[in-house]
């Protein structure tokens, strides 16, 4: 065994010790952790360049179910990956050892790659290691910096085959680690005929009494878990207007409609119809022309154009400023059919009445179905495309706005002059889109590109004084015009 293999096995041992998992279930198959990582390593080794190789290694986060997802950021010839936690209890230690394995493997293929690791806590090893780890410095979020060009690698003819297999396994997802998560997933998938306790026990290769004791130890029971699954699915099904109360009760496994209605009143102290009207239908008084919450726009993140890679999505939300204390959540359907909440945070004011909130990069795959929940003043307002849920199935999805300003970034233009990278989205095609500075400088045109359901307008414009705001003029040959000026204040570029 050579030195590289010894180091590889040592890192694998550290990783499996911290996760407690040497074997994982993907779909209907059992996989050794080592075999999965060997597959990832071989796929990365046959990739066309170092950038794509690192993307392949990112698939290991989902395969091993570590509870982290990568957010890519590019700047010139370098890029960084910030790792975001999927839950507050996500463990940093397994992520640390996995990244050390990335570093060990890719450094052998691309020895001139420059690596830097930022980490929020110190990591200690319980056993001595006889090889060099990637050092780290403190930062509030775990971030991997790779500061070199995309180095080319002779591409193997096996790359396509390995990439397809890796992507397929990634979509299968590793089985949830916790017993309760496994049981709730099994109950959800079996609705409307959930398995009895004895059938669940057989699935987990344990006697029913033993499974009951495990439930009691975890503070729950079979009946409580089934009730929780039915309650969560009832909320999702009520958001779809075409489903009647009777149909929802049948899909949840109740023997008749009154049984479902009694259970629902027990959960929420109201009937399903009243809940649907209060929480999922757009209600506004005649004096309130603006909805409390609405979709502003959403984009699918695809910075790395690769057939089997998706970096997720971001959602922007417009809401009325009804109170200082508020909560905004995007509830989206994951690939396993479960609806999960993602929090949004304040970004900027759109006007005196409206605020713009946004999510971080969400670890989701297309198509992404979602609705928006705005909790303020003891009330919950829902935006869900009139009961159908929004569906992000392309690069961009616009709300009710005819056009939005997505990105204004200060860059270095030709001959070292200041310039601004501009990206706009509009619902309709315009014969001309120009950028105008508030100092009455000549208008500068943007290029248009069509997407399903929207147009993207982009370009790099000269802007010597980056402190001056910009406005955008859309015009048609027939005379129609649209001005995007941020309520008269203009848009200010950002510096990265």
UniProtKB/TrEMBL annotation:
Limits of the HTH araC/xylS-type domain: 181-278
SUPFAM superfamilies: Homeodomain-like
Keywords: DNA-binding, Transcription, Transcription regulation
Stored Pfam families: HTH_18 (PF12833)
Protein name in UniProt: Helix-turn-helix transcriptional regulator
InterPro entries, alphabetized: CBM21_dom_sf, Homeodomain-like_sf, HTH_AraC
